[in-house]
Specification:
Distance between the termini: 5 Å
Shape: elongated
Helix content: 25-40%
Number of strands: 18
Bound molecules: zinc ion
Strand content: 25-35%
Strand order of the largest sheet: 1-2-6-3-7-18-8-17
Number of helices: 10
Radius of gyration: 23 Å
Length: about 425
């Protein structure tokens, strides 16, 4: 941080507009593949900045392309979707939005994962890149991706992405994290876990609540399944392996004195190796079928897989380049090597895999440092984020707009600048 960075010039003047944009996006969240307002807003801003814009990529995706002579091609990706969560932050710009989920239900919607921050930071970066084309050379492909929460990246790629847009030399993306503002975390190699989701329908035989002997109660069956599934990670997976199994939804019945016919569960599993992933699938199937048999279920359970995210892998060499750029731009003491065993998942890896391009993905903190009083950054890296701090997907997750926006914009420009600027340190 020794000189005025060319790409950062004027960012301070752009900031009030970016903060207003962030609050607007936060107050108007949209569910996966329904990001029409967000996409229109993104497209309009990119066009105003001078980018070549393509809309409707992979559904609601927006891709901007900007060239400044020959040089490397850098793909920058931000995800746009929000979650079916009722916001409880109490912020003046809190969401009261609702949306229609894939099952046709009206649900509350909140930017509980912080993708509004990603859109804001990338639009900040695209604005800076457009304003300072003399400071870099090459091409930037800015991807505003729909539906990260349900693995929307393949939809963008399968919409002819490789044929329609310049082929990148590097793919870059970032995620806001419940870490102190200014904190930047990354690691070479595997950075995020695989995530797989399962839908399970358990069959019973319904009847009157007063005569359970005439029924097979799927509520009791579901309860047994949920409890037994808790033993998979604790009793079957080796202690030094990463595995998580969460029953995220459980629905059965309509009234207290009616025993229903069916119960529906949805399950999410996280793993970091194919062997553990297969082990978790097999255990879920074994337990669900065995509990159904133990209940005398009249029909075999239905088990359906949906939403599958592979592990996210950072290219070793490119990660070293990004790390140096982030440290130069934001301070060496702000950049940390993440531990292994991160159980979050991402679909960003699909870009690098499909385009056969190295990719780097990092985290940037968005939480008020006061929340971490008494803890050092080293503590956070070693012990993880304290459970008391609201994290992504929590109804209380509320990144502080500043200096998070500035940090995210600077990080994107620093990382992209490592490829785009003639002197790799030009964004210092
Ligand atoms: Zn999320
Ligand atoms: Zn997210």
């Amino acid at each position: 941080m020794t000189s005025t960075p060319a790409l950062l010039s004027g960012l301070d003047e752009r900031l009030p507009d970016l903060l207003a944009l962030y609050r607007d996006l936060h107050a108007h969240p949209e569910l996966s593949f329904r990001e029409t307002r967000t996409a229109a807003l993104v497209a309009a801003r990119l066009r105003a900045q001078g980018w070549q814009v393509t809309e409707g990529v992979g559904g609601t995706g927006v891709v901007g392309v900007l060239t400044s002579g020959p040089g490397p091609v850098v793909l920058l990706r931000a995800d746009m979707d929000a979650l079916p969560v009722r916001e409880e932050t109490g912020l003046p710009y809190a969401s009261t939005a609702t949306g229609i989920d894939p099952d046709g239900n009206e649900v509350p919607v909140m930017h509980a994962c912080g993708h509004d921050m990603h859109v804001t930071c990338l639009l900040g970066a695209t604005g800076q890149l457009a304003a300072h084309r003399d400071a870099w050379h090459g091409t930037v492909v800015a991807v505003f991706q729909p539906a990260e929460e349900v693995g929307g990246a393949p939809a963008v790629l399968e919409d002819g992405f490789a044929d329609r847009f310049p082929h990148p030399d590097i793919c870059l993306a970032q995620h806001v994290a419940p870490a102190p503002v200014g904190f930047l975390g990354l690691r070479p190699g595997q950075v995020m876990a695989a995530s797989d989701s399962l839908r399970i329908r358990l069959f019973g035989r319904g009847g009157h609540g007063s005569r359970p002997e005439a029924t097979v109660d799927p509520v009791v069956l579901a309860a047994a399944v949920v409890m037994r599934l808790q033993t998979v990670v604790s009793r079957e997976v080796a202690a030094d392996r990463t595995a998580v199994l969460t029953v995220g939804s459980l629905h059965a019945g309509t009234k207290e004195n009616i025993i229903p016919d069916t119960a529906d569960l949805s399950i999410n599993i996280r793993s970091t190796t194919p062997a553990v992933r297969d082990q978790l699938f097999a255990a879920v199937e074994r337990i669900v079928r065995a509990e159904a048999a133990a209940s005398g279920a009249p029909k075999e359970p239905e088990i359906t897989r949906f939403h599958s995210f592979p592990v996210t892998v950072n290219d070793d060499e490119a990660t070293a380049t990004v790390r140096t750029a982030l440290a130069d731009a934001l301070g060496e003491h702000q950049v940390f090597t993440l531990p292994t065993g991160v159980t979050g998942s991402e679909d960003f890896g699909a870009f690098g895999t499909a385009l056969e391009t190295p990719s780097v993905y990092w985290f940037f903190g968005g939480t008020d440092p006061a929340e971490f009083a008494g803890l050092s950054s080293a503590d956070l890296v070693t012990d993880g984020i304290p459970p008391r701090v609201p994290a992504n997907h929590s109804p209380l997750f509320a990144p502080v707009p500043e200096p998070t926006v500035t940090t995210g914009v600077r990080a994107l420009l620093a990382a992209a600048g490592a490829w785009l600027c003639a002197a790799p340190r030009a964004v210092q």
